[in-house]
Design goal:
single chain; 168 residues; elongated; 5 helices; mainly alpha
Length: 168
Amino acid sequence: MPETKNQKRIFALITVIITVPCFVFYCLSIENGRLLNVDPLFGLVLIPIELVLAYICATKIGSPLAIKLALKAVPPKDYKPKIVETAIVCATACIMCPLMTFLATILYQGIFPALIFKDSSFTLINFFINFIPIFLQSFIQNFPFALLGQLFFIQPLVRSIFKFIYKK
């Protein structure tokens, strides 16, 4: 798929643009029990921040590490390209899901909502006490969606868009 550095950046950008809103809506629907009644300011402020963080994490940590791990477990000379591609997608989900869940827990449960919405009930002590349980619960809820969403919906869509952009 992507061969040059520029193509890798475009591929990561397409992936992030599709993945982040999917996860934001997924997480908000789990938290609220539905997608309605979500404060639009919350999404307008935090989604761009999360897009930037996800892009940086994907290009600097997630993709390079996932490719190394996947190619070590599934060497391309021994396996068909689809198996190697699937291993890379799975490794990426295994790296990016806990990383982005960690960052999202800070964004959605931490200091940012307190500053944006002037939440007077926010205290650093409560944040630190509740951080690990909230992170673990969020990760457990997010991982199945991350893995299955990447395998069956997001990556096929990203690859189709990428192939359309870079027709040979």
